[in-house]
Amino acid sequence: MTAQESSVSCNLRTVCICLIATLLTTAFIFALVGVGGALCMGRDAFQAFRHSLAAKPLYYIGSRLVALAVCVYFAKVRTRQDFLSGFALRPSAPRFLILAAMLGIWLAFFVQVITPGGVARIRFQTYFSLGSIVLLIGPFLEEAVMRGFFYPAFRSATPLVVSILFVCAIDVLLFHFRKFWIPMALFGVGLVNMASCLLREHTKSLWPSMTLHFAYNIPFAVLASMR
C-alpha cells in the first residue's frame, strides 16, 4: 500500500468514525437536555415546549454546532489557522461569490415553483423571527461540516459523482432526516448539496458553497409564504 493509499484509507476511516461519533454525541446531548428539561420544567411542560415552534430553531442550530465540534476534533484542529486551512476557508474570486448568491436564490424559488401549488403561495410579505436568524446562520456551520470536512475526505478516494452522493446522504442523515418523506424538500436538499459540492470542487474554497447555501435560505427565512 502506498503512502497516498494509506492517507486516503485513514481519511475514510476518520470520516466513518466521525459520522458515528456525531450521531452518538447528538443523541446523547439531546437526551441529556430532555432529562434536564423534564426535571426543571416538568415532563408535560417540557414535552409541550419540545414540540413547539420555539424549540425548532434550537434543535436546528444545536445539531449543527455539535456536528461541527466533532468534525473539528477529528480534523485535529488546534489553532485558528488550522481551521481556516483545513476547512478550505481561503479567499475566493468575487465572481464566484456573486454567481453562488444568484444561484442560491434561483434554486430556492425554483423548488418553490415546481412544488404543486407553490407559485400561488408565493407572497412577498416579509417575516422575521428567531427561526429566521438560525436559518441564516445555519449554512455556515453546515457547509463547514459537509463541504469543509466530509466532501474533501470522500473526494480524495472516490469520483466526483460518488462523493456528492455520499455527502448528500450524510447531510440528510445528520440534518434533514425529517424531510426524508417530503419529496420536494428532499429534492431541494439534493440540489443545494450538488451545487455546493460543484462550487467547492471548482473554486477550492468553501466561501462560494457557504454563499450559495446562505442565499438559498434567505427566501425561506424572510418570506412568510415560503416557510
* Alpha carbon gyration radius: 19 Å
Largest sheet: none
Structural class: mainly alpha
Continuous helix count: 10
Distance between the termini: 51 Å
The tally of strands reads 0
The total tally of domains equals 1
Task: Give the mean pLDDT.
Answer: 86
The global form is globular
Helical percent range? over 70%
- What is the ordering of alpha helices and beta strands? HHHHHHHHHH
- Strand portion: under 5%
Which stretches are poorly predicted, pLDDT < 50 over at least 5 residues?
Answer: 1-10
Name a few traits of the molecule.
mainly alpha; 10 helices; 0% strand; disordered N terminus; 227 residues
Record the SSE blueprint.
Elements: H1 3-41, H2 43-50, H3 55-74, H4 80-86, H5 94-114, H6 118-121, H7 130-155, H8 160-175, H9 183-203, H10 207-222
What does this structure look like?
By secondary structure, the chain is mostly helical. It has one domain. It contains 10 helices and no strands. The N terminus is likely disordered.
Can you describe this structure in just a few lines?
It is built from ten helices and no strands. By secondary structure, it is an all-alpha fold.
